TrEMBL record:
Residue ranges annotated for the SIS domain, each copy included: 31-174
SMART domains, sorted: CBS
Name of the protein: D-arabinose 5-phosphate isomerase
Domain of life: Bacteria
Keywords from the UniProt entry: CBS domain, Isomerase, Metal-binding, Repeat, Zinc
Residue ranges occupied by any CBS domain in the UniProt entry: 200-258, 267-319
Keyword DNA-binding listed: no
Family per similarity comment: Belongs to the SIS family. GutQ/KpsF subfamily.
Site feature Catalytically relevant, where: K49, E101, E142, H183
Binding site for Zn(2+): H72
GO molecular function annotations of the record: arabinose-5-phosphate isomerase activity; carbohydrate derivative binding; metal ion binding
Pfam families to which the protein is assigned, alphabetical: CBS, SIS
Listed InterPro entries: CBS_dom, CBS_dom_sf, GutQ/KpsF_isomerases, KdsD/KpsF-type, SIS_dom, SIS_dom_sf, SIS_Kpsf
Length: 319
């Protein structure tokens, strides 16, 4: 019984969305053009379940390159209409098209002279008549067996909102780098925006010794900088190698007088490097490929500029 009901709900809502496809016409193109050429913000409004759908649509617009916010129509009638500006566009959602709180906003909207796009299931409603463009989101029936709870109608409105947002995204030439810009706190944003330059240790934090320094000095540098590695430079200050704690362990097995040896005798030559402008996720990929935990960053003169450690990347939550 439960599965039968669930399947019926999904069939009704899938059918509602499927029928939207057949109704797409010049009105949809006009709506996209109005939104695309809007010089202000898209003000999405709706009340009840349509309000929750409106909130989601506004959030989708905002995260995909179309400035938008949600205006509660009841609050709009009590002062919040002041947030609406002349260059804005309003997108109103009402299945009946006769929602009093939304219709009460129509006079001030008209006085402001802004474009009004509506999504409604009643093309003969006041909202539809007052709109510059009306998108038909009517459904044959709700998934609710009582025909009361907004179900298929809100699903249809949500799908139409997504169609608008994605059509705008493509029309704007919106790229994943743009999406990441609006999601800097998310994993995708970090992968596409966070660079080695943001995470590397530099200045006094950079472990550095000269090739003629003793291994005792190398050990002290590795220990004090707490990165498990030190860069090694030649007389001209250019990178000639690195010494890791792994190198130290291996050298201890070979040399009883290790601390008396020069860093240049123990160092690993040709260490893996990466550019400061590279993405942090690219640094992680190099580390994984070569099973290492540190990379060196060089300046234009091939002098060590910084070191990035595996832990620096993992702390960001990039993976």
């Amino acid at each position: 019984m439960v599965l039968k009901t669930a399947k019926e709900v999904l069939k009704i809502e899938a059918n509602a969305i499927s029928k939207l496809i057949k109704r797409l016409d010049e009105s949809f193109i006009k709506a996209v053009d109005i939104l695309f050429y809007c010089r202000g913000r898209v003000v999405v409004t709706g009340i009840g379940k349509s309000g929750w759908i409106g909130n989601k649509i506004a959030a989708t617009f905002a995260s995909t390159g179309t400035p938008a916010f949600f205006l509660h129509p009841a609050e709009g009638g009590h002062g919040d209409i002041g947030m609406v500006m002349k260059n804005d566009v309003m997108l109103a959602i009402s299945n009946s098209g006769e929602t009093r709180e939304i219709n009460d906003l129509l006079p001030p909207i008209k006085r402001l002279g802004i474009k009004l796009i509506s999504m409604t299931g009643n093309l003969k409603s006041l909202l539809a008549k007052e709109s510059d463009v009306t998108l038909d989101v009517r459904v044959d029936k709700e998934a609710c067996p009582l025909g009361l709870a907004p179900t298929a109608s809100t699903t249809a409105a949500l799908a139409m909102g997504d169609a608008l947002a994605i059509s705008l995204l493509k029309k704007r030439g919106f790229k994943k780098e743009d999406y990441a810009f609006f999601h800097p706190g998310g994993q995708l944003g970090k992968k596409l925006l966070l660079k080695v330059d943001h995470l590397m240790h530099r200045g006094e934090e950079l472990p550095l010794i000269h090739s003629n320094d003793s291994m005792k000095e190398a050990l002290l540098e590795i220990t004090s900088k707490k990165l498990g590695v030190t860069t090694v430079v030649n007389g001209k200050g250019k990178l000639c190698g690195i010494i890791t704690d792994g190198d130290l362990r291996r050298a201890l097995e070979k040399h009883q007088d290790l601390l008396l040896k020069k860093a240049g005798e123990i160092m690993t030559t040709n260490p893996k490097i990466i550019k400061a402008s590279s993405l942090a996720v690219e640094a992680l990929q190099v580390m994984e490929k070569y099973s290492i935990t540190s990379l060196v960053i060089l300046d234009k003169k091939n002098m060590p500029e910084g070191v990035i450690h595996l832990h620096d990347i993992l702390k960001t939550g990039i993976v």
